[in-house]
Amino acid sequence: MYSWDNPDDRVAIVQMNSELQHAQLELLSAHCATHQLRLRFSADDLARFGQRDVLRKSIQAATALSDYYSSIEKKITGVEVVSKPPALTEKRICEGVEQIASYLRERRDHYFPLGTALTNHAKALMWPYFSATLLDRVRIVELAGSRLPNPPFYGEYRALGFANLPEIAHMHSLTFLDVVVFNEKITERTLFHGLVHAVQFEVLGLARYTDLFVRSFVNTRLHFTVPLEAHAFSLESKFASAPALRFSVEELVRLWAKQARY
Q: Tell me: the pLDDT tens digits for 94-134?
């Protein structure tokens, strides 16, 4: 068993947490893809028409992962039980939409003057996934020695029972319309993810994006199962797993918007 007092073990623990974080991102991507599958097709249809070998392998992988993480969970003390938040009125939902839209707009105006344009190297890596116009317009901010705080209205909604609000400080980045602010060192993958959200803002507009996000979060209760976020994770995974396969993020975002999948 590792000990933090052992210098050699400390190196291994840091490596362990790095690999854990990588595994978590891959799990989130798989969770999002499965969530979208669940939204579009019933379990009966999958059982009846799904390819048997793919289904069996998927079930075996999911079961093995569930068993493994469940065994770890049993060793964690003080696991918090989160109760289901109460249903919100339409008036309350609209108020939440306006609060978040105002927050995103205000933070965009704050960080835009601090941001820098993408380097030519970054633009080359991200094209043709994203249009040249978007890549020229977007600004990025890489925080050093600090992290984005949670929005000021978080306490209000946690008091209503929303305990699963995403911890902004733990996220790699947050996109404020056309400004991507990074809590951690920028990688090709995290830059891609942030730019996907910039495209979503561009295609949907701030008002529609925020309305879709809030209503989906109220329904799903989890940040990464909100379709806007699920799509970003899905495209990020596609980008990372098959870099030679180029595709237009804008076309796919417009397709999802047209099909009302957000």
A: 999 999 999 999 999 999 999 999 999 999 999 999 999 99
Rounded to whole angstroms, the Cα distance separating 86 from 75 reads: 31
Positions of the chain with pLDDT under 70: 18, 21-22, 25, 28-29, 32, 35-36, 39, 77-86
**Burial of residue 229 (number of CB atoms within 10 Å: 0-12, 13-18, 19+):** buried
How remote is the C-alpha of 66 from its chain's centroid? 21
Q: How far is 146 from 76, CA to CA, in rounded Å?
A: 29
Longest dimension (CA), the chain: 56
Which of 146, 215, 214 shows the shortest CA–CA distance to 182? 146
Q: Three-state SS across the chain? A: CCCCCCHHHHHHHHHHHHHHHHHHHHHHHHHHHHHHHHHHCCHHHHHHHCCHHHHHHHHHHHHHHHHHHHHHHCCCCCCCCCCCCCCCCHHHHHHHHHHHHHHHHHHHHHHHHHCEECCHHHHHHHCCCCCHHHHHHCEEEECCCCCCCCCCCHHHHHCCCCCCCCCHHHCCEEEECCEEEECCCCCHHHHHHHHHHHHHHHHHCHHHHHHHHHHHHHHHCCHHHCHHHHHHHHHHHHHHHCCCCCCCHHHHHHHHHHCCCC
CB proximity list for 73: less than 8 A, separation 6 or greater: 79
Tell me which residue has tokens 């699920």. 230
